[in-house]
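hiii so um. not sure if this is the right channel but i have a protein structure encoded as tokens and i wanna go backwards to a sequence. like what aa goes where. can anyone help
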């Protein structure tokens, strides 16, 4: 019994020392006008300089080449946002700290539709060491490729992301 307890304590101690998985990753799900369930490691963020007099921007890209879909989150900011909850708006030039969101359903080769976030939240959970982590729930309105004139189709988009060190990395993607 004592040996078993000692072994369990040693395994627990080692598990606490091992750092958490800090590799880039994302999950992305959508329901409503289109259904998406995908995940991958292609997560990036970047800083865009002030090119139009509206301020610098931070852009987070999830699954840019993913066959299931991709999401781009953009915020007017000079640097990474502090941890906290931020509104999603369809205003490209919001007056306060907020994210703009755009969902591409399908891929560039086989697009299913495009949706712009009009409400919801992006919760930034961590910005330590130049890494960016968070989760989101976004309501979006847009169109499906089989009827682009009907721009009143709705989706709810949920998921999470972690960029990993130095703004992210790319890797294999899977459609679930």
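sure thing!! here u go:
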């Amino acid at each position: 019994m004592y040996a078993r307890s000692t072994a369990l304590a040693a395994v627990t101690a080692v598990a606490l020392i091992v750092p958490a998985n800090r590799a880039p990753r994302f999950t992305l799900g959508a329901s409503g006008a289109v259904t998406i369930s995908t995940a991958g490691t292609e997560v990036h963020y970047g800083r865009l300089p002030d090119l139009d007099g509206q301020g610098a921007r931070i852009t987070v890209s999830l699954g840019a080449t993913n066959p299931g879909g991709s999401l781009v989150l953009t915020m007017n900011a000079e640097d990474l946002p502090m941890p906290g909850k931020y509104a999603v708006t369809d205003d490209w030039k919001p007056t306060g700290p907020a994210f703009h969101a755009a969902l591409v359903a399908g891929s560039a080769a086989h697009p299913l539709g495009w949706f712009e976030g009009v409400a919801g939240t992006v919760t930034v959970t961590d910005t330590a060491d130049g890494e960016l982590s968070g989760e989101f729930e976004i309501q979006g309105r847009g169109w499906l490729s089989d009827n682009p004139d009907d721009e009143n189709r709705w989706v709810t988009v949920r998921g999470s992301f972690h960029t990993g060190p130095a703004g992210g990395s790319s890797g294999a993607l899977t459609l679930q």
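oh and The helical segments are 2-17.
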